Amino acid sequence: MSKDHGPSIKNDEQYEKLRKEGMSKEKAARIANTSNSGEKGGKAENYEERTKEELYEQAKKVGIDGRSDMSKDELIKALRNH
Predict the structure, then answer these.
(1) Domain boundaries, the chain
(2) pTM for this one?
(3) pLDDT tens for the 82 residues of the chain, in order
(4) What is the DSSP annotation of 2-70?
């Protein structure tokens, strides 16, 4: 049985799995708290297929600092490691 992480984590089981896979607490919590948490079927485009502007907007959405000075490759790396 999963540990109860309180009201700040909606899907404790998924949160613990993501943390064991090496994700940061912030990223694991963000994923575990999505409305479709635990469901399969990610249909998002690969980062490489997105424009720099789309990557910038995603970086802005998740709060990556320094995004305005990043190249497309840097934005991809920052998004993957956030």
Answers:
(1) 1-37, 49-81
(2) 0.53
(3) 567 666 678 788 888 888 898 888 888 888 888 776 556 656 667 889 999 999 999 999 989 999 999 999 999 999 888 8
(4) PPP--TT-S-HHHHHHHHHTT--HHHHHHHHTSTTTT-----PPPGGGS-HHHHHHHHHHHT-TTGGG-
